[in-house]
Amino acid sequence: MPIPFAKPDITEAEITAISNCLRSGWLTTGGVTAEFERRFAETVGAKYALAVTSATMGALLVLDALGIGAGDEVIVPAYTFSGPAMMARRLGARVVFADSRASSPEMSWEDALAKVTSRTKAIMPTDFAGNPWEAGIESLETHFRDIPIIHDAAHAFPAAYSDGSKVGSKGLATFFSFYATKTLTTGDGGMVTTNDDDLAARIRKLRQHGFNKQLFDRYTNIQAGWAYAIEDNGWKANLTDLASSVGLVQLERAQEMLEKRRAIASLYDSIFTRTNLPVRPLGHDEGSAFHLYPIYVENRDDFITRMAGHGIQCSVHFIPLPLHPAWQDAGAPRCLNAENHFMRTVSLPIYPTMAVVDVAKVLDAAITSLKEQLECSQA
User: Fold this and answer.
1) Of 309, 316, 318, 315, the residue nearest 373 (C-alpha)
2) By C-alpha distance, which of 99, 95, 120, 97 is closest to 108?
3) How many CA atoms lie within 13 A of 298 on its CB side?
4) What region, left, alpha or beta, does residue 168 occupy, with left being phi > 0 and alpha being psi -120 to 50 degrees?
5) Rounded CA separation 159/263 (Å)
6) pLDDT surpasses 80 at 345
7) Best exposed site among 120, 189, 263, 375 by fewest CB in 10 Å?
8) Per-residue CA distances from 105 to 63, 270, 283 (Å)
9) With contact defined as beta carbons under 8 Å apart, do 253 and 246 qualify?
10) What would you measure as the largest C-alpha separation in the chain, in angstroms?
11) Closest to 152 measured CA to CA, from 136, 169, 128
12) What pLDDT, on a 0 to 100 scale, did the predictor assign at position 150?
């Protein structure tokens, strides 16, 4: 059987939870979502957790709540997904791309530092592959304590920093993704965490049309549920109880799923670090969420084609944003480190439901493909 790149880990517990929600008669944002938020905040050590429809909308809500718009600049990695950067642009801000480090795809804090101007209103680093962008945050905060760091942790639940604190507990705000391929899934969805009272209140209002009361309050207050005021130019980004019911179960299973990902990464490491073939794992921090398992190979596209021939689906993270047509008009200089990583990086399958035999098949296909590539180059 072919091995897909990613597969959600769904058990009978998630199926039961969503069935119970369907039977409850309340499907949209309500008590289940409130409990999901409470327990998520408790898990990562944040004061507030606000459930939203995606990490992209989480980024938009934070940026909008901070009043970022025309004339402002937001620094983002060149090597990341387009969603959060596009939200900054949608609000009218100019997106400034920071290059990767030469040694790894993560954003270079030195390059970000060099691109700060008087118009810089936020920096949005990405926790690539699940590794916390820890040193960069500490370095930037040392130089620019007045510039908000909005932490893109779409890959990084339940990652932890070197001091043991969880990603989501530091900085002004952090947003997570619960997309189908992520380490915790609700099908689609996301969460914003913050310790800032005012920011949390503003996001809570903005995510639901700018209403001055929550949906659950409107429809459960028999006295005056119809009465509400629209107090701001809001969005539609509230997560449903249907999605949150799955999220609550996934949250309970988060450590179990993390350990399975860690074990798969360890099996990959044990083979790749011992081979003399042209391959190198990018590596994971001790506190990584192990969302991706990226490797460097010499001929990426050929390697992916050969892996597909063996029934193994791979992926690439990421195509640098300045290379996409939608960003060509940004006038951004080339980010050469990001381009170099892109040309050599392949992400292998890693998900909790992978059996040992599946991991062995991926490794066997990878070693065979690398040997075939080496033989072709020497012919």
Assistant:
1) 309
2) 99
3) 10
4) left
5) 15
6) yes
7) 375
8) 24, 22, 11
9) no
10) 82
11) 128
12) 96
pLDDT in tens, 180-193: 999 999 999 999 99
Confidence grade of residue 334 (pLDDT, cut at 50, 70, 90): confident
Q: Which two tokens stand for residue 271?
A: 């083979």
The Cα 104–Cα 263 span in angstroms is 22
Task: Specify the pLDDT at position 215.
Answer: 64
Query: Measured between alpha carbons, how far is 364 from 267 in angstroms, rounded to an integer?
Result: 12
Which residue type sits at 222? I
Closest to 173 in 3D by CA, of 143, 142, 204: 204
Residue type, 173: A
In this structure, are residues 30 and 223 in contact, taking their beta carbons and an 8 Å threshold? no
Any idea which residue has 């659950």 for tokens?
216
Pull the structure tokens for residue 20.
């119970």
Give the C-alpha separation, 202 to 192, whole Å. 12
Peptide bond into 158 cis (omega under 30): yes
Counts for the chain of helices (H) and strands (E), in that order: 13, 10
With H, G, I as helix, E, B as strand and everything else as coil, classify residue 230. Answer: strand
Q: How far is the C-alpha of 40 from the C-alpha of 246, rounded, in Å? A: 13
What pLDDT, on a 0 to 100 scale, did the predictor assign at position 228? Answer: 81
Q: What is the CA radius of gyration of the chain?
A: 21
The tokens describing 85, both together, are 């950067």
Token pair, residue 314, equals 């791979």
Which residues fall within 8 angstroms of residue 104, CB to CB, at 6 or more apart? 128, 282, 283, 341
How far is it, in rounded angstroms, from Cα 327 to Cα 320? Answer: 10
> What distance in Å separates the CA atoms of residue 178 and residue 160, rounded to the nearest whole number?
18
> What's the rounded Cα separation, in Å, for the pair 188 and 181?
9
d(CA 306, CA 237): 41
Measured in whole angstroms, the distance separating CA 72 from the mean position of its chain's CA atoms is 24
Q: Look at residue 211 in the predicted model and tell me its pLDDT.
A: 84
The DSSP code sequence of 290-357 is ---EEEEESSHHHHHHHHHHTTB--B-S---GGGSGGGGGG-PPP-HHHHHHHHHEEEEP--TT--HH
Residue for token digits 């809001």? 234
Nearest to 137 by CA among 283, 159, 261: 159
